[in-house]
UniProtKB/TrEMBL annotation:
Organism: Thermogemmata fonticola
Protein's pathway: Cofactor biosynthesis; thiamine diphosphate biosynthesis; thiamine phosphate from 4-amino-2-methyl-5-diphosphomethylpyrimidine and 4-methyl-5-(2-phosphoethyl)-thiazole: step 1/1
Catalyzed reactions per annotation: 2-(2-carboxy-4-methylthiazol-5-yl)ethyl phosphate + 4-amino-2-methyl-5-(diphosphooxymethyl)pyrimidine + 2 H(+) = thiamine phosphate + CO2 + diphosphate; 4-methyl-5-(2-phosphooxyethyl)-thiazole + 4-amino-2-methyl-5-(diphosphooxymethyl)pyrimidine + H(+) = thiamine phosphate + diphosphate; 2-[(2R,5Z)-2-carboxy-4-methylthiazol-5(2H)-ylidene]ethyl phosphate + 4-amino-2-methyl-5-(diphosphooxymethyl)pyrimidine + 2 H(+) = thiamine phosphate + CO2 + diphosphate
UniProt EC number: 2.5.1.3
Protein name as catalogued: Thiamine-phosphate synthase
UniProt function note: Condenses 4-methyl-5-(beta-hydroxyethyl)thiazole monophosphate (THZ-P) and 2-methyl-4-amino-5-hydroxymethyl pyrimidine pyrophosphate (HMP-PP) to form thiamine monophosphate (TMP).
Region (Disordered): 135-204
Matches recorded under Pfam families: Clp_N, ThiD2, TMP-TENI
Binding of 4-amino-2-methyl-5-(diphosphooxymethyl)pyrimidine, residues: 398-402, 430, 469, 498
NCBIfam families on file: PRK02615.1, thiE
GO cellular component, one term: cytoplasm
UniProt key word Magnesium: yes
Length: 587
């Protein structure tokens, strides 16, 4: 949509971006617009402030001292609001700089409350801004408007005596001019195309908007009645807020780039869709102090049992909000309602992904004891050793064969996969995504010199588990960023399985576990004798080879390791079911 901006307003739109860049912000915040408007030294805003006894320099300083302001949803939203206001109050679609300032202050009630003490008090500014008759910006830059100027157009009657919307009473009232309304729209006398309010509600709660501002909206010319707008406004807010919570969950709790991306895309698509209900209309219907729902609380509203519970609650809230938007949206426009329904379906996919994660992810989340197994080194007794390890409580088996021919290796992998799956134990292949694929393993383990994660993922798909060896904290961050499902952290101690010339040791275990929210398995020379040190450094999961592969009684060694490991609780964020029995003893 094209907007008609005065030269000053146009400059301010660009200057806001410069302010954002200057202050090191990636997004343009509300404050950046005000700072941009203050730069117009000869402009309407400067004159307005002068009339109100405010110093632009002082204001600039105060604004710069405020915490980061909310972002502007989009320049389009801001301009639509400014243009709506100009049309209603000046009967002129041109957006002047003062209209831009008022629009900025209407974007976010909390922000408006924060800047009001600086003198940027919305009702006061609105009252000061309005001319007796519209004047072009160029001609009027030096024409001060009297503070007591009345509103030029009649306003909708207040919906309730007690609400602040009572401030929207007609300016012809005998008392002092009330604070200005956030939006001035004509009361509607009849509703030609909009169904189905009864006659009494039409005149008191519906508003007529100009066709120009209705262009991108979901209705023609006649806006919905206020109660309907309130339902839609509230549920749009609910849905957007829930999406934010879910995005944080995927990003910070699950550390999962792929689901984070899914929620982010959903949030952006939703934001685009909700803009079809113009913000100006939504704001005109908003009436928080009079909303009977804001003071009601439900049992459990402030209780959350775990991070997963927060996720679950917000998925439900999102689905309910979308259902409400769909049902009430049917009164507006069937295609709008259809979109709400499609968003709701997308949340079911998300729910499956976040709450009912795959068998593999669940087993991984619970896994504490991981075994690197080289059957060729066990000779004919490899099956016996496997059974022993499984009965002792090994939860992940990795086939680690360095010298076996591919075909023999594939046959071994298939046999191990069958047995492990029978035992509900994860089976992974070391080094070789191709063998992991053909043996239908649960995933692959990759070292720093093996194939990169992206290539292995391409081959194995989204559901496969991919583990990565890490030896430095940089490698840990990199592995998580690249989408590893788990990491190996080591070597902790000298190993009988592999020779190392560098040991990041327990300090690395400390660092790596502190920054990891997904499974991290400490490994390298770990035995029942030294395990307590590893646990004390923060590890809750380990991978071992020699201490099981060379033990005469692998089952009992595995059981000892498990008993010690199980006596420490797994961090809740790592587990789907974190309600395990384990008390946390002092190490
Ligand atoms: C669980 C786990 N962690 C680390 C490794 C080591 O992998 P890599 O560095 O590729 O060395 P090799 O095992 O391939 O010699 C691992 N295999 N498993
Ligand atoms: C193969 C391997 N990689 C390690 C790493 O730190 O990346 S430690 C290790 C050997 C693990 O076996 P054991 O328990 O016998 O020491
Ligand atoms: Mg390797």
């Amino acid at each position: 949509m094209e907007y008609l901006l005065s030269p000053g307003a146009e400059r301010a739109m660009t200057a806001a971006q410069s302010w954002a860049a200057r202050l090191g912000s990636e997004i343009v915040q509300l404050t950046h617009f005000i700072l941009a408007l203050l730069d117009e030294e000869e402009g309407r805003v400067a004159q307005l402030l002068h009339r109100l006894g405010l110093s632009p320099d002082r204001l600039r300083e105060q604004l710069l001292a405020l915490p980061p302001a909310p972002p502007v949803p989009s320049p389009e939203t801001l301009l639509a609001l400014a243009r709506d206001w100009s049309l209603s109050c000046r009967q002129d679609p041109q957006v002047l700089t003062d209209a831009l300032l008022l629009a900025v202050l209407q974007m976010d009630p909390q922000y408006a409350a924060a800047v009001a003490p600086l003198g940027l008090d919305l009702p006061r500014l609105q009252a000061a801004v309005l001319p007796a008759s519209p004047a072009p910006e160029s001609a009027a830059e030096s024409t001060p408007y009297p503070l007591s100027q009345a509103w030029p157009s009649p306003l909708p009657p207040p919906p309730s005596e007690t609400s602040p919307r009572a401030t929207t009473t007609s300016p012809t009232a005998e008392s002092a001019p009330p604070p200005a309304p956030q939006l001035t729209l004509e009361p509607i006398q009849n509703a030609p195309s909009y169904p189905p309010p009864d006659a009494s509600s039409v005149s008191s709660t519906s508003v007529l908007i100009s066709p120009a501002s209705a262009a991108p909206a979901v209705f023609d010319a006649v806006a919905p009645p206020l109660p309907l707008l309130r339902v839609l406004d509230t549920n749009c807010n609910r849905a957007r807020e829930a999406l934010r919570v879910l995005e944080d969950f995927c990003r910070f709790v699950r550390n999962d780039p792929s689901s984070t991306e899914e929620v982010k895309t959903l949030r952006h698509d939703f934001a685009r869709w909700e803009q079809r209900l113009p913000l100006s209309l939504r704001l005109s219907a908003r009436d928080t102090p009079a909303d009977v729902g804001t003071t009601l609380t439900a049992a459990g509203e402030y209780q959350r049992a775990s991070l997963e519970h927060v996720c679950q609650i917000n998925l439900k809230r999102l689905q309910e909000a979308l259902r409400s938007l769909e049902e009430y949206g049917k009164l507006l426009d069937p295609s709008w309602a259809k979109h709400a329904e499609q968003f709701r379906y997308r949340t079911y996919h998300l729910e499956g992904r976040l709450l009912h994660s795959s068998r593999r992810q669940q087993l991984l989340a619970q896994a504490r004891l991981y075994w690197l197994f080289t059957p060729s080194a066990a000779g004919e007794r490899w099956e016996w050793r496997l059974e022993q390890a499984l009965s002792g409580g090994v939860q992940v088996v990795q086939l680690r064969e360095k010298h076996l021919a591919d075909r023999a290796c594939l046959q071994l992998a298939q046999a191990l996969r069958r047995r492990c799956h029978q035992a509900r134990v994860l089976f992974l292949v070391n080094d070789r995504p191709d063998l992991a694929l053909w043996s239908e393993a649960d995933g692959v383990h990759l070292g720093q010199d093996d194939l990169p994660i992206a290539q292995a993922r391409h081959l194995l798909g989204r559901e496969a588990l991919i583990g990565v060896s890490t030896h430095t904290i940089e490698q840990v961050h990199q592995a998580w960023q690249q989408g590893a499902d788990y990491i190996g952290i080591g070597p902790v101690f000298p190993s009988q399985t592999k020779a190392f010339d560098h040991f990041p040791g327990l300090e690395f275990v400390r660092q790596a576990t502190a920054v990891s929210v997904r499974p991290a398995f400490a490994l390298g020379g770990i035995t029942p004798e030294n395990l307590l040190h590893v646990l004390a450094a923060g590890a809750r999961r380990i991978a071992v080879s020699a201490c099981l592969s060379q033990a005469s009684d692998p089952a009992s060694i595995a059981a000892q390791l498990r008993a010690l490991l199980d006596s420490y609780a797994l961090p809740g964020v790592n587990s789907v079911d974190s309600s395990g029995p384990a008390p946390v003893p002092a190490p």
